[in-house]
Design goal:
Blueprint: E1 2-7, E2 12-16, H1 20-29, E3 35-43, E4 58-72, E5 79-87, E6 95-100, E7 105-109, H2 115-125, E8 131-136, E9 140-147, E10 150-158, H3 169-186, E11 190-194, H4 198-206, E12 213-217, H5 222-231
Parallel strand pairs: 8-11, 11-12
Antiparallel strand pairs: 1-2, 2-7, 3-4, 3-7, 4-5, 5-6, 8-9, 9-10
Helix pairs in contact: 1-2
Length: 234
Amino acid sequence: MKILRRDLKEGIVKVMVQDREDCWHLYSVIERGDRVSSVTYRTKKDKGDKARSKKEEKERVYITIEVEDKEFQKFTDRLRIRGRIVEGVEEIGAYHTFNVEPGMELKIEKDEWKRWQLERLERATKKHPKMVVVAMDDESATIARLHEYGVEEVATIYSGRSGKMYEDESNAGNYYQQILSKIKAMNVPVAIVGPGFEKDRFVEFAKSELKDYIVDNVSQAGMTGVYEAIKRGV
C-alpha cells in the first residue's frame, strides 16, 4: 500500500491499493459512516425522453459514498464497500458499491482516526515476505500460501505412486516437476516439509532451481502438515 496523502486535521487519508493484503487492511480500518471516494463507472443516464439503448454506456466518474456495509472476499483481490452516494453525481442518495482491487486509489474520511487504524495503514506500507508451504510425502504434495489473513490452499498434487515404489523414475520426476512448476510460478520463499525422506528427494531434484527455501520435518503431508509447520514457526 502507498499512502498518498495524510491530513488528519481534515480527517483524510488517501491510499493506493497494491495487493490483496492491502484489501484486508482496509477492510479492518474502514467503518460504517466513513466517507470513501474513488473513481468508478456508472451507467450513463439518458437526457429527456430518449429511449435507453440496449447496450447501456458506462461513464467514468469520481464519487463519494457514506459507508454502510463492507465485504472482504478472502483469497481474491477484491474488497467490496457499499453505501449511499453523497457527492459526485446527480443520483445523490442512490447506492453504489466500490469493488476495490490492486491499482485503485481511495480517499477515506473519518470524523476521527484512531491510533491503531493509522498504525495498521502504516504497517501495510511495509511489505512482509510472503511464504509458501509444501507439505508432502510420496503420495501427495499440498501447496499452501500464507497471508496475513489466513492460509490459502493452492493445490494438491498426486504422485500416482503404485505399491511401495514408483513404477519408474519418470513418474517420480513428473511428480516433482509439477510441484516445482507451481512453486516457481508463485516466486516467493518456500518451506518444504513432510514426514520421511520424500521432501529431501524433491529438494535434491529441484535445488538448482529453488532460490529461497527451508526444509523441515512434520508428522503428515496435506493441510494438517501445513498447519503443523506454521505452529512450529517455519
